[in-house]
Amino acid sequence: MKNISIVILAAGKGKRMQSSKAKVLHHICGRPMILFVLDAAKKISPNTIVVIGHQAQEVRKNIEKKYLDVSFAYQEEQRGTGHALQCALPMIGSDIEAVVVLCGDVPMISPGKINDLIYLHRKEDNHITVMAVEQDNPYGYGRIVLDQNGFIEKIVEEADATNEQKEIKMVNSGIYCISCAILEEVLNAISNNNKQNEFYLTDIVPIGIENNFRVGVMLNQDANDVLGINTLEQLQKIEALIQEKH
Questions:
Q1: Span 53-62, mean pLDDT?
Q2: What is the CATH number of the domain that holds 166?
Q3: For an engineered disulfide with 34, which of 24, 85, 140, 217 has Cβ 3.0 to 4.6 Å away?
Q4: What does the H/E/C string look like for the chain?
């Protein structure tokens, strides 16, 4: 797909994996999980950027065993997902209209669902489109708060959510389509005024709304598509799901 760049965020340590190995290098069915995300990305666009940080050279080496046409951006200090995407800005070509942001620890995302996100983004002429899912147990996910008209108002991280917001089942998948026309502006407006002292990419939603940009939501019907891996238990669960598919 022309004029689309895909940025995969893969710089984090993954402390809860209880391992010194970078999270995205943990294996699923004998392969580093980051390669599953790249497989999907490469079916959509040849313009792929991976943001690396923790064990950067090791992550790069593993990727280049399979893909030589990947660009790499370095996030030397892990200061949140918003900062990670900022690190990729210089790598995005001037001919690119929109960027799809994927997470390196979400290996079940399919090219079809990425395509659906881009299609909706263009159809609704959005500036920002968030991929959402409904989770029966939304613990750990950013909740999508809708206004009284059913439009997205903001995304609240677990650490910052009120008890009422924690009951919300519609959650952020961490996957976005963002128009390049506004990308730098919204990223520069993010602050780290939160409990984690990090620059959250989720903050582009309220920033976009404040600036009268069009912000939309694509509800993905299959929550498994966007299951993230933060623990060894989740790794085993996703490996079992992938084996079932094949």
A1: 96
A2: 3.90.550.10
A3: 24
A4: CCCEEEEEEECCCCHHHCCCCCHHHCEECCEEHHHHHHHHHHCCCCCEEEEEECEHHHHHHHHHCCCCCCEEEECCCCCCHHHHHHHHHHHCCCCCCEEEEEECCCCCCCHHHHHHHHHHHHHCCCCEEEEEEECCCCCCCCEEEECCCCCEEEEECHHHCCHHHHCCCEEEEEEEEEEHHHHHHHHHCCCCCCCCCCCCHHHHHHHHHHCCCCEEEEECCCHHHHCCCCCHHHHHHHHHHHHHHC
Look at the chain and report how many structural domains it folds into.
1
Of the candidates 16, 31, 60, 214, the residue annotated as catalytic is: 16
Which structural domain range is residue 173 located in?
Answer: 4-245
pLDDT tens per residue, range 87-129: 999 999 999 999 999 999 999 999 999 999 999 999 999 999 9
**16 labelled catalytic:** yes
